[in-house]
Amino acid sequence: MDIDTIDRKILSILQGDGRIANVELAERIGLSPTSIGERLKRLQRDGFVEGYGARLNPHRLGLGLLVFVEVMLDKTTPDVFERFARAVQNAPEVLECHMVAGGFDYLVKARVADMAAWRRFLGERLLALPGVRETRTYAVMEEVKRDAPLPVG
Amino acid sequence: MDIDTIDRKILSILQGDGRIANVELAERIGLSPTSIGERLKRLQRDGFVEGYGARLNPHRLGLGLLVFVEVMLDKTTPDVFERFARAVQNAPEVLECHMVAGGFDYLVKARVADMAAWRRFLGERLLALPGVRETRTYAVMEEVKRDAPLPVG
DNA sequence: GTCTATATCCATCATTTATCCGGTCATCTA
DNA sequence: TAGATGACCGGATAAATGATGGATATAGAC
Description:
homodimer, 5 helices
C-alpha cells in the first residue's frame, strides 16, 4: 500500500505533464510500458492520483485579480459554519477555502476579473451571509510562486 | 484571439479531465474530432492551456499539514525582497507565495508532514533568511474547498 | 526442501487514438 | 466575379493503449 522510488518518479513526471504517453514515460524511467501502466493503475486505484486536469491561464480567461480574504464568523450557532461552507462551495469565484486555527476562522482564496468584481462579490455574496462578522481582504500584487507541484521525491 | 462558447466548453471539460480522449471530447461537444483538435491546438498556442498535470493526493504522500504564513520583511534594502522570493522558489514545501497589499508583505502556502516538520522548516529556512521580521502561521484544520476549477463558463 | 501464492516485469497483438491531408461550404473583400 | 479566409468534416496512416499469457523472483506454510 506504500510506494517506492519508481512510483515516486512516475508521480513526479505525471504531475508535470499529465498527458505524457505511457511509452515515453516508460522510456524516461527505464521500464517497459506495460509495467508502468500497471503501476499507474495501482497508483490511481489506491488514491495517489486523483485525476488529471488542464492548467489554464487565469489572466487569459479574464480573471486578473487574485485575492485572499480572512473571514471571522459569529460563533453563536454551529449552523453558521455549515451555511458558510455551503455558500463558499457554490461560489465559482472561490478556488479554495480553509478553516484555520488562529486569529480568524476561514481563509478564502478567490479569482475575479478586477477590484470592481471583487467589491460586488464581497458585498453581495460574502457579507450577505448570516454570521459573517468581519472580513479582511488582501489583494495579490505579484504571484511569486504559483501552484507548485507537490514534493513527491 | 478571443474564444467562443465551444472553446470555453473545451476548456471546462479539459480542466476536469485532462486525459479525456479527443474523440470523446468531440462527441460530448457535438463536433468532429478534427475540429476539436484544431481548436485545442489553438488554445494551447495562444496560452489558454498552459499544460496538463496529474492531481495528487497530498495526504497519501505524507503531506498531512497545510499551513499559511504571513511574512513581514524589513524594508531596509530592496535586495531583501529578491532574496526572499528566490528562497521561496527553491523550497519544495512552498506551493504558493504571493506578494500582497495590506497588513503584511507575503502570504505563503506550504505543505509539510506535520507540525514538527513545519517548526523545522520555519526555524531553519524561513526565519534564517535575512530581512524576515515577523511571521504568523495559520494551520489549516479543515479544507472546505480545495483547488476548485477556474470559472470558464 | 518443496509447494503455493504473490508481485513485478516483459513481449506480442488487436483495438483505439491522434494527426495529417485533401476537400466542402460559407463568408468576406478587392 | 474571383480570390482569400476560416471553420468544419472524412479518410488514411502511424502511434499509443490495453489485454493476454508467460517468465522470474520472493516470501510463507508445511
